[in-house]
Amino acid sequence: MKNLVILGGGYGGMRVLLRLLPNQLPDDVQITLIDKNPYHCLKTEYYALAAGTISDHHIRVSFPEHPRLQTEFGTITKVDPNKKEVILNEDRAISYDDLIVGLGCEDKYHNVPGADEYTYSIQSIDQSRETYQKLNNLQADATVAIVGAGLSGVELASELRESRKDLKIKLFDRSKHILSSFPERLSTYVANWFTEHGVEIISEANITKVEPNIVFNHDQPFECDAIVWTAGIQPNKVVRDLDVEKDNQGRVKLTTQHFIPQYEDIFVVGDCASLPHAPSAQLAEAQAEQIVQVLLKKWNNEPLPENFPPFKLKGVLGSLGKKQGFGLVNDRPLMGRVPRLLKSGVLWMYKYHNG
Fold first, then answer.
1. Which residue numbers delimit the FAD/NAD(P)-binding domain (predicted)?
2. What's the confidence (pLDDT) of residue 331?
3. I want to staple 47 with a disulfide (CB 3.0 to 4.6 A). Which of 126, 131, 156, 240 is the partner?
């Protein structure tokens, strides 16, 4: 019996499971899923969990059940490609015939002293719960600093504003304009929303140091009651420790068929894969679809697909609280109520089809 081991039940790993189960998994293949949590987590909604506007169970989806799907829960500490083993909880080895690495990303602190020690995060569900406890236990008129004004920082800041109207929120952005990768019209719309709702944007920020309850911007101290870091990501440490070729962001370079060139039994999906697009849930799912095609060909001893059509990504949707939003769909900027409704609809559809 061949053993397909999937590291991480995120968007990529979940899509692989749902494509192979219940009817496409060959009779001589079993799957071992390894994750910290006994459920799939909707990472795109962690900002709302941290802000306190949704409860924990709203962002959990059960893994599928199947006689040849075994789940293992714990911390993955190492992948040994030569022994074809995954080390779990530092001492337990699980062998694989094929491996899909979908471990996601962690915060990147850019060597800023104190950033990893004195800031909160929304990169994992555990960290988001911890951030929720901190933010929602703050006293009235407390100050929250959010470092990083990409999609995560913007959504967290807007959701926190609706959750805690009493808080002072400072959003540190290293660019001249918030959401600088988006069209200027959309960027201006989001900036105006923050101005109208009393969120202070500090542009062209350069965070040089973090101390307990103090953010240093260009070495100038800003006192805060809580600091949340949303200023960049990097692949999971297990992937960073892999001795394989990577791009300048630390993501693993892959063949057209999504496996590591020198290890054709190791596939990498999602945030850890070097792909010509920014990491996202829909990109991980699209890549997972292609990996399943490769695996089925491989297991049937058929030639692997030589190439795939380009990924068709629908765009990006972001929320500004519960009533407003923004997005870029088919390169068309969307602002206001419609993108917020679209995002809610996409989330509902995902949970309906996967739950």
1. 3-283
2. 86
3. 156
Tell me the one-letter amino acid at 346.
Answer: V
* Side chain identity, residue 96: Y
What residues contact residue 185 under an 8 Å CB cut-off, 6+ apart?
333, 335
Summarised one tens digit per residue, pLDDT across range 311-350 is: 988 899 999 999 999 999 988 999 999 999 999 999 998 8
Nearest to 288 by CA among 17, 3, 4, 2: 17
| Secondary structure element (H or E) that encloses residue 327, with its range | strand 324-329
Residue among 3, 25, 26, 235 nearest 100 (CA): 3
Domains and CATH numbers, the chain: 2-36+74-106+234-299 (3.50.50.60), 109-231+315-354 (3.50.50.60)
Strand, coil or helix: 125: helix
Closest C-alpha among 297, 296, 241 to residue 272: 241
Q: Are 153 and 230 in contact (CB under 8 A)?
A: yes
CB 33, CB 9: distance < 8 Å: yes
Longest dimension (CA), the chain: 64
- DSSP assigned state of 273: B
Please say whether the beta carbons of 324 and 337 come within 8 A: yes
Threshold 0.90, pTM exceeds:
yes
N- to C-terminal Cα distance for the chain? 28
